[in-house]
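Let us practice reading a record.
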Amino acid sequence: MAGLIIILAIVALVIFYFIGIYNALIRLRNRVKNAWSQIDVQLKRRHDLIPNLVETAKGYVKHERETLENVTEARSRAMGANSIGDKSRAESDLSGALSRFLLVVENYPDLKANQNFLALQEELTSTENKIAFARQGYNDQVLFFNNKIQMFPSNIIAQTFNFNQEEFFEIEDKAEKEVPKVSFTT
């Protein structure tokens, strides 16, 4: 009789252990979703600021129509992206278009002095910083979640209940990755 009680106790402990793992996986998956929603809020804020910035600049940079159109098109693609990978690529393109736009603005001192434009530019910069911070938090949660579903014994529970790896949100900044060329010849 004592042997049966010990076996039942061990089985109960194992069951509770696996329930704990399952609940931990649910908690981590929900943290990933919450972290993504934080990024989504900031991306929407960014997307809402861009038309105002472009509209303010239109009167000054009439000869830069292509640059303005590129920003608008990149914004549309970013807003229409569905998967995290698509959003990553679209947001990278949008960042590049915004960078080129802000470089063009440097040629227009009247626009650079416009208070409305300066306020919008400051708001966009603040939003970019919040996106970077939210992206870091999201990627941290994805790392914790992916580690949990890959490590033993939680990988058994993850496979049993179809927990899938989450994708990191990476915005490739091509300008940062390009190595500057140094030449001492003239």
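A brief commentary: DSSP finds seven helices and no strands in the chain.
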